[in-house]
Amino acid sequence: xxxxxxxxxxxxxxxxxxxxxxxxxxxxxxxxxxxxxxxxxxxxxxxxxxxxxxxxxxxxxxxxxxxxxxxxxxxxxxxxxxxxxxxxxxxxxxxxxxxxxxxxxxxxxxxxxxxxxxxxxxxxxxxxxxxxxxxxxxxxxxxxxxxxxxxxxxxxxxxxxxxxxxxxxxxxx
Length: 173
Known about the structure:
single chain, about 170 residues, 8 helices, alpha/beta, about 15% strand, 6-stranded parallel sheet, Rossmann fold
């Protein structure tokens, strides 16, 4: 299933929540092979509090993929704009930013979170067809088969919805 440059620029982000399982997968030769197969030429990794960022530097020497790694940036917007695919946790801020910019989103569920509101968000976004959600153990197959054509466009912002909600709320009081 080789598609030349289908996802030439890929952003992986974990936000501020530690997600070592996802970042560690990026060093796995099996995942690197899949990234190359789906056309990845540039991999941008926002690793957050990852325990071993030096290990990520191995990617720079072990594959033909150009790798840029960073812990945090003030804004992910330029990286999201450049990305053909965003892979990340289900943080509300990141997910909404990616979807509003009309970028395909592959959410990897972080099972290590105790009160996992991210799981609820991931399931809801996937149920509505706005993103694909996967568990860490299924990441390789989900990445390999990822098809952005099955995703629904995320709705545009509508500030009137909240205004109308407030107006209806005050009328019923």
